Amino acid sequence: MKVEQLSLTDASWHDVVPTIKIKASIFLLFISPTFKGKKKLLTTLRKLHPDATIMGCSTAGEISGVKVNDDSVSLTAIELEKTAHTIEQVHINSMDESFNAGATLASKLKSGGLKHVLVLSDGLNVNGAELVDGLKNVLPNTSITGGLAGDSGNFQDTFIVANDTISNKIIVGIGFYGNDLKVGFSSKGGWDSFGIDRLVTKSDKNVLYELDGLPALELYKSFLGDNAKNLPSSGLLFPLSMRVNDHDIPVVRTILGVNEEDQSLTFAGNIPTGSYVRLMKANIDRLIDGAEDSAKGAFKISKENAELSILISCVGRRFVLKQLVEEEVEVVQDIVGKKSKITGFYSYGEIAPFGKFSPCELHNQTMTITTLSEC
């Protein structure tokens, strides 16, 4: 595997893209919503590399090397020397179709020798938990990682790139085939929970109506104090930890929207009736430690020095870390090594197993890492 990593701006990309030296099999593009030249960029990539697969999404921040940027494109050119791949996409009209969309995408990618699936999804019109369940239903024994597109924390419109298409309401996946590809993956958080467990007494998939028989939004606002007036964006700073059973590893759920009329909260993933949730808050040191633990987990699985490390971290982490945000990328580089090219983005949801023997899950507020190399 050969990898080139570039950070592009509207002013510079015309001069930089023609300098790519490798024969790219895949381009990964993580694109700021404010980047104006995305359509022309795709046209240029197709002209220079007519056989390459192109996949990407909008972001809430672009990771390129150890830098976190805005108004840019983190572009990664990958030349696969031993591994076959294919790209597929599905269209989704509403969140209710999320499970079927995941199952359909998985069915399109399912074939002999499938080693790994990398998936990117619209960040606002998809129920990420249902999407993951659909993928797992068809591919229960295949590792799956990826994330939900962002739009700089505005929660208005995200987009996906699938070859020459740029659109919302689509989900795209690349399937990698063969045993020459070495994949590592891990997802860790670092948030602290506080307060008491609250029973979910009324919900419908990813919409939460009641906690302990009380209106969910009213109760949630009582915890936030002055931060409540900035919902839903301030909800990124106070996610919920959720567990369905006592033995489950808790997953984190982040708010996507609020409804004052019915006092409900809409999350990126499901909050089942009968589950328990606790409020969470940030600890900067623990967030950075979580990124380091995720890198260690991915390396433990791959047992290889990664040629490419794909980092998908939650926009909520960026809001908390602020000017320290690059520290969570730097600690990852300390683990994967400076020879590994690093790309990624800040997302509205992360898709990965916690570790080697865990099922794939939708996460929020985690640093999710996928490492790729060929042996």
TrEMBL record:
Positions of the FIST C-domain domain: 216-354
Pfam families, alphabetized: FIST, FIST_C
Domain FIST: 23-215
Protein name per UniProt: FIST C-terminal domain-containing protein
Provenance organism: Winogradskyella vincentii
Phylogenetic classification of the source organism: Bacteria, Pseudomonadati, Bacteroidota, Flavobacteriia, Flavobacteriales
